[in-house]
TrEMBL record:
Residues 10-153 form the MoaB/Mog domain. It comes from Agaribacter marinus. Belongs to the MoaB/Mog family. This is Molybdenum cofactor biosynthesis protein B. GO terms for biological process: Mo-molybdopterin cofactor biosynthetic process. Pathway: Cofactor biosynthesis; molybdopterin biosynthesis. SMART domains: MoCF_biosynth. Keywords: Molybdenum cofactor biosynthesis.
Length: 169
């Protein structure tokens, strides 16, 4: 059995109101990522602004050291929720199954309210990007789905081979 690869993962909290002291979702993701043996490459909080989000995510996508990005917040239906609009145009490929599976799992936890979740994922420049809702519970649900796919020993497949092949094509 091969050893799990340690990835460099960035965490972005999208919020108009949270700061480092109140960002429980971002804090949870950092702890979960580190507990899985990965490294935090960057962590920041950004206002729910399409262009500020795109600027940060674009910078991280271009950084060869960052292999994955997890965002929390901005995936609902309020006027200010704009994470999908900001991030999805940056995808080279969309991971449709992630949002579908997130909502299916979330249904068991919050019922039909899950239809208001616009959780999504994609690949950009050999970087996996997962966009989760802002609640800590949603981040726990999302990480349970993401974690095996960022584990290089997960069978029958995982994203790690795609992420670590940057520069080989």
């Amino acid at each position: 059995m091969s050893e799990q690869a340690s990835l460099n993962i960035a965490v972005l909290t999208v919020s108009d109101t949270r700061n480092e002291d109140t960002d429980t979702s971002g804090r949870y993701l950092v702890e979960a990522i580190e507990n899985d043996g990965h490294k935090i490459a960057a962590k920041t909080i950004v206002k729910d602004d399409i262009y500020q989000m795109r600027a940060i995510i674009s910078q991280w996508i271009a950084d060869e050291r960052i292999t994955a990005i997890v965002t929390t917040g901005g995936t609902g239906f309020t006027f200010r929720d704009s994470t999908p609009e900001a991030i999805s145009p940056l995808f080279d490929k969309t991971v449709d199954g992630f949002g579908e599976l997130f909502r299916a799992k979330s249904y068991d936890e919050i019922g039909t309210s899950t239809i208001q979740s616009r959780a999504l994922a994609g690949l950009s420049n050999y970087t996996a990007i997962f966009c989760l809702p802002g609640s800590t519970g949603a981040c726990k649900t999302g990480w349970a789905l993401i974690s095996p796919q960022l584990n290089s020993t997960n069978k029958p497949c995982n994203f790690v081979g795609h992420l670590l092949s940057r520069g080989q094509h």
